[in-house]
Amino acid sequence: MRAFFTVLMVVIFGVANAFFILNSKRVDLKKGTAIYDGGIYMSLIYTYRTALGDFQTDNIEKGGDVTLLWWLFIFITVFLQITMFNLLISILGETFGAVTSMGDKSAMQEICSMINENEFIMNREEVFKNSKYIIVARTERAGVTEND
């Protein structure tokens, strides 16, 4: 999970930096003023919102290197939304599978532990005095053989 979030943050900061650099040179040709005055903070917010699916493409067509901005926008939508979040879903699914596979084993260990803790309640001699045999269950560690 740490590697996922590290890659996610590096990509978000990298794309935000690219948006900041590309937008800092954009000027409205009619007015002669900057189109984008948000700074690096607003570039980070824009990149983060785009990664979550909030697309604002209103200002992309206004001056500057429009083709490069569109390619950067397509990269962030494909890489961050599709690739990274599918990776996150697969990591969480693998973790869930590992936890559920240990569920039956943990449940049986807890039942055996409760039986062992409460064994003093039952008087074995009284209960099994007319029995020919007694089955005793004890916790043992299984050895690994060639057939396992």
Q: How is the main sheet built?
A: none
In whole angstroms, how far apart are the ends?
32 Å
| DSSP summary: helix tally | 5
What is the average of the pLDDT values?
75
Report the radius of gyration as a whole number of Å: 31 Å
- Work out the strand percent: under 5%
Helix-strand topology string:
HHHHH
Global shape: rod-shaped
DSSP summary, beta strand count: 0
Helix and strand composition category: mainly alpha
Helicity level, as a percent range? Answer: 55-70%
Low-confidence stretches: none
Structure overview:
The chain is built from five helices and no strands. It has helices at 2-24, 39-52, 66-101, 103-117, 124-127. It is rod-shaped. The protein is mainly α and 148 residues long. The chain has a domain at 2-101.
